[in-house]
Amino acid sequence: MKILLVEDNRELSSWLTRLLTQSGYAIEQAQSGEDAIHLLRTQTYDAILLDLTLPGIQGQAVLKNLRSKNNAVPVLIISALDSLADVIEHLNLGADDYLAKPFDIQELEARLRSLLRRSSGQINPVMTCGGIMYDSNSKQFFSYGHVLSLTPREHAVLEALIRKAGKTVSKKELTDGLFTLNDTVTPKALEIYILRLRKKIETSGAQIITLRGLGYMLTYVAPE
To answer: 85-102 pLDDT, tens per residue?
Structure first.
C-alpha cells in the first residue's frame, strides 16, 4: 500500500517514514503543499497523511484541490491544530479522519488501517481466500493457520490481491502500490513476485490467475 506523507518537519517525516516502512507501507514524502499537489497530479496513492501547516500552499488548500478533482483517496490529517472547530472544518472539507499532534504511532497505524479497509470496501479486518487468511491488524498472512513467510514486496502484492479477491487488479495498480518514485522498477519485477507467491500459496486452495492484458486475480479454486 502506497502512502503520501505531506509533512514539512523533516525529522518527524523521516521518523514516520521509517516506522511505516517497517510496517510494510511504501512511503513517498512531500515537504510542501506544492510538492504534494505535483505528486497527486502524476501518482496514485492508497491514502494520504496530511499536515495542515505547510510552507507555501497550506494543507487545507491541498485537501480542497484534491476533492475538487473528485479524487476520493482517503485523507488522514495530522496536525497540531487541535480545536474542535479545526476538526469539524476539515472533516467538512473532505478529510476522512483527524489526528492531533503529538500522537502515538500505534493510534496512527490503527486509524490508517481503518481508512484503508473502508476505502477497499472491507469492514472485517480479517480477509480470506481459500485457505489464506490475512489479519490486517497484525499484518500477517496465514495458510491454514500457519504463518506465511513473505518478503515485504511479496506481502504488498498479496495484500493488494486479497483486498480485491475475486476481482482483477491491474499491473499498474500493483506496481503503483509496490514502488515509490525512488525505486528502480525492472519490467519483470512484478512477474517474479507473482511467481514466488504462486509457489508459496500452492497448497492453500487459492490461486493467482493471469488475465492477459488486464492483470491478476486472486481466487479460490475448489478441488475437483
So the answer is: 999 999 999 999 999 999
